[in-house]
Design a protein that fits this description.
This protein is α/β, with parallel strands linked by helices. The chain folds into 2 domains: 3-244, UDP-N-acetylmuramoyl-L-alanine:D-glutamate ligase; 255-408, Mur ligase, C-terminal domain (Protein-Tyrosine Phosphatase, Chain A). Helix content is 36%, strand content 19%. The protein is globular, with a radius of gyration of 22 Å.
């Protein structure tokens, strides 16, 4: 008898049984957690950062469980796993509720049965399955429609698609935003590198300054959502503000990291490649104070534009915000040409067909005082450019279907041990 084959068959069968019964187990377990407040955070962008801010606030207030990393899709069993890890001692559970195709939101909300729903933004994403932003908004709105009458929902009034969801809410609506109709009102947001994001907010007639470690004014929505939800959960606003000041940017979400040996700083933002996140990152570079600004970029997603059109646009926009441009990929030459046509110096616009050539170029160019933006489609895995500046990497594929950061990939082959299960902070 082949005992090894038998063992593998038993493991496979046990895993299959677990996967089959886990949704039912999570559904039942959620109904038994009667004293636990479940919070579902959704939106096109900012879910992970909002969750990290909120769980940090709540964890300091009461026992809290949360979804790890950026896990948020039902098809991977992420909500089920988060529920099953929770225990009756946990007063709060914070879960990211993501969607990928029609029907996802109603399914996950029925499983989670949230006491509080949080909706951040509706922007262009998953355009292969949601052909219009209205289609996506309708799917996201299922979070609100499926809440119970005794629940509460936190909505961003500055996004018209989210603001419209208030009419469908069967429960109490708590609003935040910059308009006068918001209870939690944003009065000012400022963030100009090297300064981090600072907000001035107003709550019930009182004003508060909120200092964060985040980079870019576009994170104001995440901060406001976390603060609003925390106060709804009974956390004093002063305590919530103090906790937010300790939270570093999440892994590869406008995350500043020091580049050893050069004195340069890289802002890693290579996880989400949607077109709207590109403009937010470029705005940070445009307003930043640095001796030299370098943009390393491949391509963006979630737009019907053709590759050539996107390459031309990247070239022109990059020329507006950077002193040195490095374009990566098959259409890099077209981006260079577009930048030069707009008057950008030819010698400062470079093309790199591969990750390795981009790494070699940066190693020869980087110097103290440089600020580098690393930005591209998720599937291009530009993390290897950052990691290649730390040591030799083995992977040379331009695209990869794995939905993980290269830092945690066993195929990276990095000579310097840089496997990371946490975050790498800027010194």
């Amino acid at each position: 008898m082949d005992w090894r084959a038998l063992r593998d068959a038993l493991i496979w069968r046990r895993t299959r049984i677990r996967r089959r019964w886990r949704p039912l187990a999570a559904y039942i377990w959620r109904r038994l957690l009667m004293r636990t407040t479940v919070i579902a955070v959704s939106g096109s962008v900012g879910k992970t950062t909002t969750k990290e801010l909120l769980r940090t606030i709540l964890e300091d207030h009461a026992p809290t469980a949360w979804s790890p990393g950026n896990d948020n899709l039902r098809k991977f069993g992420s909500p089920e796993a988060t529920l099953l890890r929770a225990r009756p001692r946990h007063q709060f559970i914070v879960v990211e509720a993501g969607v990928e195709r029609p029907g996802d939101m109603a399914s996950v909300i029925k499983l989670l049965k949230p006491d509080i729903g949080v909706m951040l933004d509706v922007k262009r994403c998953h355009t292969n399955t949601f052909k219009t932003i209205e289609n996506l908004a309708a799917e996201k709105a299922e979070l609100v429609r499926n809440l119970g009458a005794g629940s509460r929902v936190v909505l961003n009034l500055d996004n018209p698609h989210v603001a419209a969801m208030a009419d469908a809410a069967p429960c109490e609506v708590i609003a935040f935003g910059s308009g006068t109709g918001a209870r939690f009102r944003l009065l000012e947001a400022r963030s100009r590198w090297p300064e981090r994001l600072t907000l001035l907010i107003q709550l019930d007639g009182a004003r508060y300054e909120v200092k964060t470690r985040l980079v870019g004014v576009h994170w104001a929505t995440a901060v406001m959502a976390a603060l609003t939800t925390a106060v709804v959960c009974g956390v004093p606003v002063e305590k919530a503000i103090a906790a937010i000041a300790t939270v570093e940017p999440f892994w590869a979400r406008m995350q500043p990291v020091a580049l050893p040996g050069s004195g340069a700083v890289m802002i890693r933002d290579e996880w989400n490649g949607s077109v709207d996140t590109f403009e937010a990152a470029f705005k940070v570079m445009e307003e930043a104070r640095a001796e030299r600004k370098i943009v390393v970029v491949s391509d963006y997603s979630d737009t019907p534009s053709k590759l050539r059109t996107r390459a031309n646009r990247l070239g022109r926009r990059g020329a507006e915000v950077a002193d040195l441009l490095v374009f990566v990929g098959d259409y890099a030459d077209r981006s260079v040409a577009a930048a030069v046509t707009d008057g950008f110096p030819q010698e400062n616009a470079r093309s790199a067909e591969s990750v390795q050539s981009a790494v070699a170029l940066l190693k020869s160019e980087l110097r103290s005082g440089d600020l580098v933006l690393l930005k591209g489609q998720t599937s291009h895995h530009l993390s290897r450019i950052y990691l290649g500046l730390l040591g030799d990497i083995a992977c040379s594929r331009m695209a990869c279907s794995r939905q993980i950061l290269c830092d945690a990939c066993e195929h990276l082959g990095l000579a310097v041990n840089q496997r990371s299960n946490g975050l790498v902070y800027c010194a």
